[in-house]
Amino acid sequence: MPRNPDRRRALADAGLRVLAEAGARGLTHRAVDTEAGVPVGTASNYFRSRDALLGALGERIMERFAPDPAVVATLSDREPSPELFADYLRYIVERTTREPDLTRALIELRLEAARRPGLAAILGETLRQGYRDDVAFHATTGLPGGPFEIALLHYAVDGLLLDMLTTSIDAGVDPDRAVTAFAARLVG
Hints:
Number of helices: 10
Distance between the termini: 53 Å
Structural class: mainly alpha
Order of helices and strands: HHHHHHHHHH
Helix content: over 70%
């Protein structure tokens, strides 16, 4: 029987709310069913295993973090430059901090994947595809930086987000200043 994609998204969103509220330990198929207000067993029909459920949450996070095509079009109208690259990075930080629970959920999923090989395979492919998409975007738009620089920026932005949305080192560095420095030092 074909699965309803709207129901799948609604279940994943409910799972993200459970993950944000109760952490990975509190995330069960039954908890997702309860949060979504659906009959018991619905989530397990869509996500057969715990790893499948967790992996689907990672995919849903990426869907929800997808850039607004209008913003990308506006940015794309500009000439490629380190300044434009910094503005793209600012937009990434804006999108990923607008709903901090989503970023915290992704961090939690990544930690859980370190302990669960099945989830590591599912979530790892989602993350690697995002990286490949970023590299392709740079190649097609003429933005500075190649695969190595894009990897370094992922590492830098992930660290910035971790610091902004969890217990901070409290270095007193404005996130915008950090993003500007990342762009300037890596591709400037």
